[in-house]
Known about the structure:
Two copies of one chain form a homodimer. Chain A is α/β, with parallel strands linked by helices. Chain A folds into four domains: 5-292, Succinyl-CoA synthetase domains (Rossmann fold, 3-Layer(aba) Sandwich); 296-461, Rossmann fold, CATH 3.40.50; 508-584, 2-Layer Sandwich (Dna Ligase, domain 1); 590-703, D-amino Acid Aminotransferase, Chain A, domain 1 (2-Layer Sandwich).
Amino acid sequence: xxxxxxxxxxxxRPDTVAVIGAAREPxxxxxxxVRNLIEGGFxxxxxxxxxxxxxxxLGLKCYPSILDVPTKVDLSVIVVxxxxxxxxxEECGKKGVKAVAIISSGFKExxxxxxEEKIVRIAKKYNMRLLGPNIVxxxxxxxxxxxxxxxxxxxxxxxxxxxxxGALGIAxxxxxxxxxxxxSDLVSLGNMADVDQSDLIEFFGDDPETKVITLYIExxxxxxxxxxxxxxxxxxxxxxxxxxxxxxxxxRAIKSHTGSLAGSDSAYNAVFKQSGxxxxxxxxxxxxxxxxxxxxxKPLNNNIVILTNGGGAGVMATDAAEEYGISLLEMxxxxxxxxxxxxxxxxxxxxxxDLTGMAGREWYRESLKELLRDSRVGGVIVLYCHTAITTxxxxxxxxxxxxxxxxxxxxxxxxxxxxxxxxxxxxxxISNKIPCYDSPEKAMAAMGAIxxxxxxxxxxxxxxxxxxxxxxxxxxGIIEKALKRGHKILSPREAAEIVEAYGIPVVSKKLAKSKxxxxxFAEEIGYPLVMxxxxxxxxxxxxxxxxxxxxxxxxxxxxxxxxIIRNVSEKAPEAHINGIxxxxxxxxxxxxxxGMHRDPIFGPVIMFGSGGILVxxxxxxxxxxVPLSVEDAHEIIEETKAYKMLKGYRGExxxxxxxxxxxxxxxxxxxxxxxxxEDVDINPFFxxxxxxxxxxxxxxxxxx
Amino acid sequence: xxxxxxxxxxxxRPDTVAVIGAAREPxxxxxxxVRNLIEGGFxxxxxxxxxxxxxxxLGLKCYPSILDVPTKVDLSVIVVxxxxxxxxxEECGKKGVKAVAIISSGFKExxxxxxEEKIVRIAKKYNMRLLGPNIVxxxxxxxxxxxxxxxxxxxxxxxxxxxxxGALGIAxxxxxxxxxxxxSDLVSLGNMADVDQSDLIEFFGDDPETKVITLYIExxxxxxxxxxxxxxxxxxxxxxxxxxxxxxxxxRAIKSHTGSLAGSDSAYNAVFKQSGxxxxxxxxxxxxxxxxxxxxxKPLNNNIVILTNGGGAGVMATDAAEEYGISLLEMxxxxxxxxxxxxxxxxxxxxxxDLTGMAGREWYRESLKELLRDSRVGGVIVLYCHTAITTxxxxxxxxxxxxxxxxxxxxxxxxxxxxxxxxxxxxxxISNKIPCYDSPEKAMAAMGAIxxxxxxxxxxxxxxxxxxxxxxxxxxGIIEKALKRGHKILSPREAAEIVEAYGIPVVSKKLAKSKxxxxxFAEEIGYPLVMxxxxxxxxxxxxxxxxxxxxxxxxxxxxxxxxIIRNVSEKAPEAHINGIxxxxxxxxxxxxxxGMHRDPIFGPVIMFGSGGILVxxxxxxxxxxVPLSVEDAHEIIEETKAYKMLKGYRGExxxxxxxxxxxxxxxxxxxxxxxxxEDVDINPFFxxxxxxxxxxxxxxxxxx
Lengths: 704, 704
């Protein structure tokens, strides 16, 4: 099957469309699709209804089979019952059709896995791309293709919308029209037997008609493909996604209605962050932000200024800025002085700039011009509460004039607050490429999306990947030996040796097989010591009395050895004991955790967070999927509260954060090199003061 | 000045209105107010324009002074320049007017404090209530009074809106009209020289025309009055508030690190929680939720069921339920079986119940009837994605029919997702008292507000206040002595004795004035010990080497004594040393912090959270203003992460939470009894396993 994005051209920009299962009865979907194509404005002479029992449908000539159509067919829309789909698909293949959209349901979503596999095989055989089955269809406003049972096409525009929920797709056609939002395409994904989110993202990434890609996601099938595709596309244009299934309950609901396997939400979050996809909370936000990104220029920098005629609206916007992490410019004195001319004496030149309720067209225009001209201002939020002093029309004029005079060099996002009288002006601003909303919070949220997109993009473009020297052979040897013995849980000693081979310092330890050996090792390592049981069957050593700390002399070593053996024999009689590990008691540092697990969808996920006893209490952890760039290694640390602890607070010195970053990257390398490793847990990892490094105290590794 | 809510009757429900400063020129506010009154529908014969230079304004007879008006005047609206306000106010007083609304600006907001004080004195003298100055005016739809410069009245309704931002008020008149939301009143507060939020809340609380009170707050002047008023009113009707200024930092002297954690926004939050006021993030939410609360019945219980025809919408609603902390009913088998009849085999009877895109009027109606009849269902969210199968009209009919048949016994909140075609149906549902929104998240948020209001109300009604035995005299003696000496920072020993007198256990300690005394006390108390300097000038003892732990023998006591004296003399040479405290080294427990500080607006605020070194890292603290009920003492603990730690995790035993609740209530009592205390900080307080109590290790008290 051709998997390039270009192979979707016949699916999304077809010149000819056949409807297999076209029907004369108006209540049937096979009828509605033909009608929708005609009413959507697709040229009638290039629509081919297929129905062996009809001569004409809606005035179009009918063909008994697709094989009878006299010309080339780009897209076949299939609406026949599920059991007949394989037969008509074979015919499509023979006809040389390169794209099919299967609206019919009755496949995997009702447990009919075999039938779905069969149609995938047929499509593959003929090198056809297959959308669906179980979809609403495809709406393409560029070529006026309403190959769906949506009653009408969306408005023409440059936002592509890819949805995993058909019903939501249909409903949003109406919703976007009502809000005057144009789409280039609306594609319903259905069961994703072949074409999936990634294929469509790739296509729209290259599509000159699409400026912003929006998604409603319940789950992706191929996590790695999704990740790689998004990384490539977000540097070209913004991708915004609603990802449903934050709540555990929701994951269950998704399973019940799509049967799809949901990866963990934290893995999705990591993928979005690392690939520059902006996660959006609700569908109104999705389109609000998409519109802003589709028309707005890049911010000059990340410092925003708020211009308002109402203190209240300014305060709300300030709160929203805090919520979205948007920095507000400290107004430089010279700029403040220039703007002071356009307000009464009781106005404010702090940020928010309050022109007061007396502000009209001129003050708005002139102060906005000053803000546009000043390169210290990254972007401007203009707020207007409708007053009796002036009209929304005058304010919209002022904004448009200022932007035209100075040039549209940075984002200007507006909120006109009022009744019916502001709606037209809001739309006029948008058609002048100035995003406009009905509340200060929405304006600030849209500005937040603009800032986030461009700063994420810069980060992705400048990412560097680490090069590290490691002892691959040594680690490989340990893993192979363990696998041969059939041990999935590596002993602490083996685990320690593997990460040590990869350059992560580990507390020095030796495995003693006898009391005498323990004493000898103790004398070599030096006191104080920790002694602990080494057994592949014991994960939590404390629980079985398998660990004793603060061992200070020969005598104590002997006693500890006996105590551990006795404790473990009593509490875990079936555990095989390899021996007793004698290790240096490390000076206590700040405790962090490093780890890795495999997500069913996205593969290896690296974790970092507060360690020691705090792990389960705080759940202060952050995640990244592999590969991590050096910047990711910084970010995974900076996102946590542990970072604040490492930076030092209440007069504490800064800890050796570089050594933690290094350890994260080395752990990453272990995971990349050995797909046999299922799970790594380094906890605690002690971090010492800056320049003094850090050390892994306890390392657990589980093989798959 | 009469401060009862009834005294606001002439202000908000006037029968006659004078406009002092009425003008002939259409651009003047004095003209607009007269015009707005007439156009708003207030009887012309009861409007009295006052202007010595005009005979008629807008066809109404003008009077030179209010003293010339032949009948009684309920409300005087004043629009003359600020400097003339005192004069006309005197005349109002003499006329016997009981309410004035001063639109004029030029008072405190521009620094003219004296003039504002003067008008307050005049109003007081004549027992007049005064709204403003510096307001937009008052809009009352009940008596059709548009005594403002808002161009029109809001739609008639039963939501009162009180705003501290005039511009926002004007803009929201239009906004609420556009969204078909009715208000009983819109009141702009201005400078609040007399009438404030609390007065208006009290009035609307008793007003039969008002069902829900909404507020836009920037700050209240009298925090205690606000708190007490809200507590009284929320049990009668819901209060919803936007509180702006989350990001604003209230400047406050940092006397100990306890105080540094509590900005005044946390005091507002505490007040809202304790008084049952629902804090709302944005103004669209404010009115969305207000509408829901104004028409919806009480939930039967807190378990909600989602009914949908689109899996995607159901998933979004489920995520939103998680976000708003709404519990979704685990569907009982018998109920599920009854509903299964109204869906195809591939539908889902889990919650969300997915009727699938095939659902029409009958399935919606019948399944909703089942949900309404079942008492295990507390409320229902009905979602409809507009499909080709049916119309929004049919679904709205289905919902209305179900509610009519079974009875409106629990909240039914709807989201119709689609375009223009759903708007009318949404409004029809609302006029049938069924809240309806355009997105699943908004529907769930509104349901959350309904649940929150009724459960908070129940909590407030059932609150109990504690009775405790304490040794008031002893604590009083210590405080008086300290005050006499002029010490604001109590010594650790004095602080410990005060909280001990109030029944909070404190680690036993004695103050040694000499090395010999230290040794004697040590032998009495028993080892191991902690020794620390007692000085009113040293807050952080560790920083000056003023504390030594793990002192185990006579010899060590002597050495520690000398070391501390030497360390402190070197590092804090100017500190007066009372002596050295010798205290039992307490067995380490789980560490929490208890504290109190005084908020400039709301008075004493009690704090609880994770203690020890975690205080500043986690900022895991929760606040309540006094008085706290027993339930508040539970909640302040349950809101924190520390609670999870106290409950025990990873196999740990539960800690003695009762002893923490007791300590919170006893600390509250200390604070209530001694207004001289400015700040208390008990950190750490060690909590032992259940039944084993807890103990305060370090107590700091600062007097004002």
